[in-house]
Sequence to fold (518 residues):
Amino acid sequence: MHSVPGVSTSVLKKGLQAAKWSYLGVAVRIVTQLAAQIALARMLGPESFGLFALAAVIVGIGNLLADMGFGAALTQKEHLTHEDIRLAFTWQVIVGLIVTGILIGTADLTGRLLGDDRVIDVVRAMSFLCLLQAISSVSHGLLKRELDFKTIQIAQIVSYIVGFLLVGVLLAYSGAGVWALAAAWLTQSAVAFLLLYAKTRHAIKPLASGLGRRHIARFGGSVLMTNLANWSIENLDNFLIGRLFGAQSLGLYSVAYNLVRAPTNHLVSTLQPILFSASARARNHGHGLRLGYAALLAGVCLVATPIFWGVAVVSDTVVRALYGSAWSQASGLLLPLALAMPVHAVMAVSGPLLWGKGRVMLEFRVQFWVAALLIAAVLLASQISLTAAAWAVLLIYVIRSVWMISTVSRELGLMFLDVWRSLRGGILLGALTAAVVAALDMGMTMAGIPPILRLLGDVFVGALALPLLFSALAKWALPSPEVRLVAGRALKELPEFLREWLQRRLGGADTTGSGSRP
Fold:
């Protein structure tokens, strides 16, 4: 039987099955999230989104502090005990309550810090998210430990539909303004907690003593510091833009950012826990991890680059078609932010391999210094314009990606040439797809075709060009027989017609599970 050297068949099989359920959920979540964002943006306008984004910056850091990294620690710990679960849940409740209280008590100071008193009551209401998400993390961590991503995806889909498509849209339609977004997020978090806990039914009997002697505290602390550094990179731009340019500009920036960041988050956040869980179990199999990482870089780059580079070259059409002329200024921001997303995606799937090997602090050092660079870059660029600040974000994302990939490659013993061979296919495929879409969009714009029809034409032609270009580039894009073997294993989770077509493109990668090891 074919096997990936150094990685057990059971781990690979469970990981691929988890990925299948994750991406079925992702497809639904992308559609529902895009529908909700378009509806809410058209009803609420940039200012409401800007106020919500300001409050979300504060609540986001509260969520990280309340989480404490215990969920990840429960996933990573090799031998988990009943007391570990009780201890983690007890401290999640304690810290969640403390952080919620702090946010409520300091809301006035937050309003002065952000330069807008309207955000004070929003922060107070949304502070309860810190408690909800803290107590959800234990169930989430236990389900990820078992690679039960079917349950996680169902919970996330159902909670998002209830929170944003039902509560959020109905409140926005009734004129609730920013409160529609706040209520939607609170509802989503509450429903997700109930669904996740209903599946795990873990112990909730308090146990507060002995935290300092536990692995979950040590590992969770490292995760917390790394998450704070990551959060800083991904949210400080929102804070600085809101502080320097006001809620209206932040609304434009946050909608452009979320339009491309949400699907990217779905792509990488779906892979991250699977990679973390699988690499924690295969941490001593260096050769297998090298092959898996090379295949991962190739796959993520092949998927993300054509899509987001395509969005970047037709950013004006995308904004006008989806949100209307009131949001037209967001198109200049969407261009650099869309270019940044493939860079972010290949970076974001690197960290979980370090986490699984217990090397979280390696990522923390990278993210800490990149966060400092981000602050400096955005402050300098903001002296020019809001658009310049968006281009500065792209630059920092490139630096972070190169740094993280280099760190992981050194840890795994992967050569620069191997990394380039993994990324080259996606880069070329993205450039060619973007060129085709840009030429078509330019022609339709000159012909006076309305934005919505231009967007439909761009999507249709891009969807046709992408598989044709991939067919021509597949053997060159996937760098080695071993990587093609991992791809062949993944094909077993696809429908038969699609599996057969892709198998031919991959040059006969085995999808049957038979044959000799290369």
